[in-house]
Specification:
Ankyrin_rpt; Ankyrin_rpt-contain_sf; 71% helix; ANK repeat; 4 helices; mainly alpha; single chain; 0% strand
């Protein structure tokens, strides 16, 4: 009977080993699926982020175009442009002063093209630029 018990235990161990191997294989498959799902989720999030950035850039472009249309296509002699040229801060600084001081060369060029005065002085008698 002792031999029979030993054989029975050996069969049970083989069955348990086979069941454990099947469970391990199933767990590895589930883990691989979870890793793949995580990678797919990260890729989807990256695509979403990229699309959101593109949308934001498009919205900014639309806002700039709308602002340009409101200004009549940019500086160039319209009533609004002339009002901008006449603006002055409390210290007497004009838009040209601000543009020069902050290094906005494109704005300086637009202001000059629109007729900004190059001899404009603020309350400290500083010129609008180094000319």
């Amino acid at each position: 009977m002792h031999l029979h018990d030993t054989q029975h235990r050996a069969q049970q161990q083989q069955q348990h080993g086979a069941e454990l191997a099947a469970l391990r294989a199933q767990m590895e498959q589930q883990l691989a699926a979870a890793v793949a799902a995580g990678a797919e989720a990260r890729a989807t999030a990256a695509r979403l982020d990229s699309l959101q950035q593109q949308l934001a850039a498009q919205q900014q472009q639309q806002q700039l175009r709308a602002a340009q249309q409101q200004l009549g296509g940019g500086m160039g002699g319209g009533a609004l442009e002339q009002q901008v040229l006449q603006l002055q801060a409390q210290d007497g600084q004009a838009p040209l002063h601000f543009a020069v001081r902050n290094g906005h060369t494109a704005v300086v060029a637009k202001l000059l093209d629109a007729g900004a005065r190059t001899d404009a002085r603020d309350k400290k008698h500083a010129l609008g630029g180094p000319w």
